[in-house]
Amino acid sequence: MHRRITAPGALAAASLLLAIPASAASHSPGAPGIGDPYYPAYGNGGYDVSHYDLRLKYQPVTDRLEGTATLLARTTEDLSRFNLDFLLDVSEVRVNGAPARFRASGEHELEITPKTPLGKGTAVTVVVRYSGVPSQQQAYGFTSWHRTPDGGVAANEPEAAWWWFPSNDHPLDKATYDVSVQVPDGTQAISNGTLQSTSSRLGWTRYNWRSNKPQATYLATLAVGRFDVTTGRTESGIPVINAYSKDLGDNYGAARASVERTGEIADWLTEYFGPYPYNALGGYVPNVGTGYALETQTRPFYSPRQFANGANTSVVVHELAHQWYGDSVSVAAWRDIWINEGFARYAQWLWSEHEGEGTAQEIADYVYASRPADDPFWTVKPGDPGPERQFDIAVYDRGALALQALRNEIGDEDFFTLLKGWPQRYAHGNATVADFRRYAEEVSGKPLAALFDTWLYQPSKPSVTAARDASIAARTSKAPGAKATAAKTPAQPKSWKKIAATNDVHEHGDERHGH
């Protein structure tokens, strides 16, 4: 047996170590990004938010926003500090009631160092007091805040939260929301979910909104201005709140004639996608100069430009389809964007069929035949388009074409079982394109890797043989007794111009970067 001799200095050091909690040495900073390959700095590591409570005051005249955000979260690792994504000026941060150190870093990071390190699995309450003028803030050279003549609007993809509340800004971290907004009397504040209450005092009115189902940060919205607000219920009983800026001018009638059909269209979509996943519904059209629409949860955002040529129910179909595909089932990473956009576009094709203006098959044939093989359209891979092509028209049209190919491969019964089953399987969660392929194989009992690869992942036009195998092709004309002539482009479906008129829905990716 060997006797171990310890020097006095070493003994003192050992005693000091014993005084430090055993776990403290293992605490480390949370990652400044959640790990998305397209946007490495978006979101944050080390914690998961379950609820946002936002108490705001907004002055339309100056575009000044003051807020107190309370985040309820739980740590997923031992944390010495953690980040939130945010741009406005912060005056105070508290973590579990105690003042915390904080500083801005990078393009949009708020670094928070709590008074004591946080162990894994700890329930955390974070309070952030802040203020600023959102329209004066930029990150990466762009802004997601829309200044309007009578207020402001937060609506953009893949990022909008930084301009109005601190968050873990990635679809992987969904949460419920209470949004309470104080605005001058005569002005309204529109947000997601149900309007719980309003109250007025000393020239200010407070609107209290609640989203009681998990919601991605980019799907949270705020619109302050002077609106005409309509209310009603769908045939199935879901409350509908729509809002239209009072100064839409010539677009007002067409906007209202479109968005007022929200309840009807949502009920129609349940036939294909199953029960509507939320307890609130609606849409809003603020007086913004941008051209896109966005599927902000329960209450889509529409640009007035969507209605410049008259009523446009197709864009309403697109954004409402997202409530199932994109909002309830959200992307696990932004490369999975086809899970959102291919399906919302395909819903427009189904609406065309419903309206008697061209079947989904006819539209698919037209898309395939009208784009020659050397069209750059075919170089975009809808299953992984890259951050610069995330909202390319190919993600929409080629993405929907892939769904028609899948439908023809597995048959209508399995296809529509799939469309309804998917939002149930991953309700209020996240999923990947690979998850969808596996689920399609499970439902159909068929191997589908080759079909998905051809239609979603190859940077080229699927061959005539592949198209024929998927029952998609340009028609050939053959007179009796004559050889078949070259393939002809099918006639343009009647609905095509209406569908194409909604192509601005994909332009927010470009506008976001100021292109």
Q: Alpha-carbon distance between the termini? A: 77 Å
In the CATH hierarchy, the third-tier topology of the domain at 331-476 and 487-504 is known as Neutral Protease, domain 2
Spans of at least 5 consecutive residues with low confidence: 1-23, 475-486, 508-515
Q: Into which percentage range does the β-strand content fall?
A: 25-35%
Instruction: Going across the biggest sheet, name each strand in turn.
Output: 6-5-9-3-2-12-15-14
- Mean pLDDT, as a whole number? 92
- The secondary-structure class comes to alpha+beta
Please state the second-level CATH architecture of the domain at 331-476 and 487-504. Answer: Orthogonal Bundle
* Portion in helices: 25-40%
| Shape call | globular
Main sheet properties: 8 strands, mixed
- Name the CATH class of the domain at 331-476 and 487-504: Mainly Alpha
Total number of beta strands: 21
Signal peptide: 1-24
Biased composition (Low complexity): 476-494
Biased composition (Basic and acidic residues): 504-515
Keywords: Hydrolase, Metal-binding, Metalloprotease, Protease, Signal, Zinc
Can you tell me about this structure?
Belongs to the peptidase M1 family. Its cofactor is Zn(2+). It comes from Streptomyces glaucescens. This is Aminopeptidase N. With 515 residues, the chain is of the alpha+beta class. It has a domain of 164 residues: Orthogonal Bundle (Neutral Protease, domain 2), CATH 1.10.390.10. It has 13 helices and 21 strands. It has an eight-stranded mixed sheet, with no helix packed on it. It has a four-stranded mixed sheet with strand order 1-4-8-7, with no helix packed on it. A hairpin with a 2-residue loop joins β14 and β15. α4 crosses α5. The longest helix has 18 residues. The radius of gyration is 26 Å and the shape is globular. The relative contact order is 0.09. The N terminus and C terminus are likely disordered.
